[in-house]
User: What shape does this take?
Amino acid sequence: MHFKPYNRHLVVDLIEQKQEDKSLVVLPTDYKKPKSPYVRAKVIECSEDSKFNGVLFSNDSVLVDRSMLQKIEFDELSFYLVLENYVFGKIYDGGSNDRI
Assistant: This one.
């Protein structure tokens, strides 16, 4: 099954970076480091009416507002949607596949 976004939405996949910091301070076992309000995501697909259609492509990395991500779980599908207004920009890693 495939999902096609409409109404200026992008389908993205989160790229969570796990960091294991060794601390000299003892913290409670249930302590969790606050998450950044921004998250890196991989573009899966843009809606045709999005201003990013033809600009962002599948597998491009973007920076988005974490609080504006909508996790969709429907039947056996699970993915994230974000409205184009909450994409701050494209992330370039310096690889040869980066398009400017």
Summary: The domain at 1-13+34-88 is CATH 2.30.33.40 (10 Kd Chaperonin, Protein Cpn10; Chain O). Strands lie at 9-15, 38-46, 61-65, 70-74, 77-83, 87-91.
